[in-house]
Amino acid sequence: MKVLGINGSHRPGKGTAALLKAALDAAAEAGASTELVELAQLDIQFCIGCNACLGRTSCTLSDDMNDLYEKMRDADAILLASPDYFGTVSARMKNFMDRTRPFHMVENVLKGKLGGGLATAGLNNCGAEGTLELIDHWLATHEMIAVHPRPKGPVLAPGAIATGFAGLDEEGRPQWRSVKADPIGFDLARQMGLDVVEMGTRLGY
Ligand SMILES: Cc1cc2nc3c(=O)[nH]c(=O)nc-3n(C[C@H](O)[C@H](O)[C@H](O)COP(=O)(O)O)c2cc1C
């Protein structure tokens, strides 16, 4: 089973990448082959709205999306990770989503593949759920199967969200931590990797 992770952070290797890597590492431990793609390291132009994809499953632009289209075709599961920017995905991730339109307008090329979303955020309760909702909407548009991780024990979070907020000090000043220090978010991310492989195995991938 092949699990492709796509990071929409502008900062390769930082918080969002770490969260995605936790999911991919868990998937690898469960037997999947994995790959992490940093959108920030690729040349991916803006969708130009030419509408050529109304009649074909490929894009008129020629850039690093060409390779990524092939990786997506080849994957059994695709995980999208993004920082929460104003309650939704980063512009980089949104442009990637726009560029997947050729996989939707003639037929749903990604239909039946598994997918999942992960998000990082500065604050708690400040938009990361919206980030995951947009990713879920992208999955649904492509008729992919959304995996929502469920670790054992009590439900502690709505999804794989890791935040940098470490509470207020005695004078009410916000304290910050690395998102990597969010135990709940990283637990959910690892569970994402495990659940993707478990569901993929059940579905015969
Ligand atoms: C332009 C911008 C908008 C942001 N908007 C939000 C927001 O609405 N809510 C929030 O909690 N954090 C917000 N953040 C914080 C990022 O989500 C957070 O720093 C994230 O972990 C960065 O991920 P990275 O380490 O991969 O860069 C914003 C950051 C930037 C730069």
The ordered H/E elements are EHEHEHEHEEEEH
CATH fold type: Rossmann fold
Number of distinct helices: 5
Helix content: 25-40%
Tell me the name of the CATH class.
Alpha Beta
Annotated CATH architecture: 3-Layer(aba) Sandwich
Radius of gyration, in Å, reads 17 Å
CATH fourth-tier homologous superfamily = Flavodoxin domain
Overall geometric form? globular
Low-confidence stretches: none
Distance between the termini: 6 Å
Number of strands: 8
Mean pLDDT: 98
Bound molecules: flavin mononucleotide
Taking the sheet with the most strands, its summary is: 6 strands, parallel
Beta-strand fraction estimate = 15-25%
Topology, element by element:
Layout: E1 2-7, H1 15-29, E2 33-38, H2 65-74, E3 77-83, H3 91-99, E4 114-121, H4 128-141, E5 145-146, E6 160-163, E7 165-168, E8 174-176, H5 183-202
Bound molecules: flavin mononucleotide.
Give a description of the structure.
The protein has 205 residues and is α/β, with parallel strands linked by helices. It has one domain: Flavodoxin domain (Rossmann fold, 3-Layer(aba) Sandwich), CATH 3.40.50. Helix content is 33%, strand content 20%. The strands form 2 sheets. Strands 1, 2, 3, 4, 5 and 6 form a 6-stranded parallel beta sheet that branches. It has a two-stranded antiparallel sheet with strand order 7-8. Helix 1 (15-29) packs across helix 5. 40% of the residues are buried. The mean pLDDT is 98. The protein binds flavin mononucleotide. Flavin mononucleotide binds at residues 9, 11, 14-16, 83-87, 120-123, 126-127, 164, 179.
